[in-house]
Amino acid sequence: MYKLGVIGGMGPLATVSFYERVVLNTLAKCDNEHIDMVVLSHASMPDRTKCIIENKGGEFLEVIKKDFKILEDIGVDAVAIPCNTSHYFFDEFKKFTSLRIINMIEETILEVKKRGIEKIAVFGTLGTLNSKVYEKYANQHGILVKEVSSEDKQVVMDIIYDIKETNALDGRRFVDILSRYCDDETVGIIACTELSLLDIPEDINTIDALNVLVKRSIELSGAKVK
To answer: Is 0.85 surpassed by the pTM of this model?
Structure first.
């Protein structure tokens, strides 16, 4: 019955944005033509970055495994997880279920390749950046990853957790960082769903991984993208 299953809550506001973007980008003339989906907003999930840095991934996996079981029992066609950092554990996710899980990271790299881009700079949590999950797929497709300074990584991390704490969406500091890395040759990957909430000027060369996930979620649910 349900086409799309969403394991969300990482964080809650980003999950709201994902759901809204799916609705706004689905080609539909009435309610009945939208995607049937179930959203698990599992906000109490262990912090992904902390689990990666402290080598406690088992704590996170033990919890999220139950969500895959719920979605499997419901019988969704595809699973979307609007959290970049969690995809560090993607290979483990596949062991939990036979459901099709959309690989947000790989799909974003494929979008980069499709656009003929050869160089990216990745902006996300320290869990995402230090685990080099984007490099894993970029290397497979011959895409160069430009290094972000440790100072800028920390500032971006602070911005992300400020959003989680306050829901305040002041993107000026982030835009300033983007402008120093993104140019005609290098596209900035918005690789954290909190960062996806910020307004980014169109003249800054970026690809938002959340938007890539939205597009694939719509397509794999049997609907058409506007």
So the answer is: yes
What does the angle CA 17 – CA 199 – CA 101 come to, to the nearest 5 degrees?
35
CB-facing half-sphere around the CA of 174: CA atoms within 13 A:
29
**Over the range 87-108, which residues count as b (16 or more CB within 10 Å of their CB) and which as e?**
bbbbeebeebbebebbbbbbbb
pLDDT tens digits, 119-165: 999 999 999 999 999 999 999 999 999 999 999 999 999 999 999 99
Provide the token pair at 89: 């554990």
CB proximity list for 76: less than 8 A, separation 6 or greater: 2, 3, 4, 5, 37, 38, 99
CA–CA separation, 69 vs 49, rounded Å?
23
Tokens of 47: 């912090």
DSSP state for residue 36 in the 8-state scheme = P
